[in-house]
Amino acid sequence: MTKVLVVDDEAGISGAVSYALRREGYTVETAADGEEALDRVDSFRPEVMVLDVMMPRLSGYEVCRRLEARPQRPAILLLTVKNDIVDKVLGLELGADDYMTKPFDMRELVARVKALARRGLQTIPGTPNEDRELVRLGELTIHLLNRTVYAGGTLIDLTPKEFDLLALFAEHPGRVYSREALLEQVWDMDFAGGTRTVDMHVQRLRKKLGQWNDVIQTVYGIGYKSAEQQP
Fold first, then answer.
1. Which own/partner contact pairs does 155-158 have at CB distance under 8 Å and 24+ positions apart?
2. What's the CA gap between 158 and 171, in Å, rounded?
3. Distance CA 152, CA 65 (A)
4. What is the residue range of the signal peptide feature (predicted)?
5. What is the pLDDT of residues 115-173, one digit of tens each?
6. Pick from 185, 206, 187, 21: nearest CA to 88
7. Could you tell me the sign of the dihedral formed by the alpha carbons of 24, 30, 32, 33, in that order?
8. Where would I find the beta strands (DSSP E) of the chain?
């Protein structure tokens, strides 16, 4: 079963969220502050984390920042009481995959966790599901159905949004995407102020791709594209 870590210093909120997720079949643990959250990530190894921003000891932003440096981390749904677009963009730039503003509808939160869990699921090569769809981009092999990426036989660990970016580029080789178009298609957002989020994710994706990072090319003054496939 998918494991979800709920991190909030308000016991009423973490309890309600945990109850709703357990009813959907998830294995759930909780943490009450940022330091405890990092410890639970190591011991519990969740696939998804519901993370409050305003917490004692370490904020949700700082938790995102520290997890970003790790080779593996859960998909992150950030919760914030702030409704300022700058705060939302900051969370996404620090590695959060999605966000919701308090107060929130529990049904929507559960739906968003389900979406992150689906995007984060990975299967092992050679196991059933051999009919999964493959896309190749240079030396990269991208399994669209189980959301894994291999380069030279080595698995590259990507966050859900990093995978979504790479898959979009791979499925449309040579097509130029503006930052606004990427923001709309990958993040389902349409505000121009968030285009820096795209740049940050492209930078992190290129870093993880290492020697294969040239498959994503910058189109100056416009946005990005993938390298065109050779005939």
1. 156/208, 156/209, 157/71, 157/72, 157/208, 158/205, 158/208
2. 17
3. 29
4. none
5. 888 765 443 333 334 344 788 888 888 888 778 898 877 888 888 888 889 999 988 88
6. 187
7. negative
8. 3-7, 27-31, 48-52, 75-80, 98-101, 134-137, 140-143, 148-151, 154-155, 177-178, 216-219, 223-226
Burial of residue 117 (number of CB atoms within 10 Å: 0-12, 13-18, 19+): buried
Please state, in angstroms and rounded to a whole number, the distance separating the CA atoms of residues 42 and 165: 27
Q: How big, in percent rounded to 5, are the helix, strand and coil portions of the chain?
A: 45, 20, 35
pLDDT-derived band of residue 46, with 50, 70 and 90 as boundaries?
very high
Which tokens sit at 136?
A: 């190749």
Beta strands 48-52 and 75-80 are parallel
Give the three-class secondary structure for 203. Answer: helix
> Full-prediction pTM beyond 0.85?
no
Q: Are 30 and 6 in contact (CB under 8 A)?
A: yes
Q: Interior CA angle at 17 toward 12 and 18, to 5°?
A: 100
DSSP reduced 3-state for 122: coil
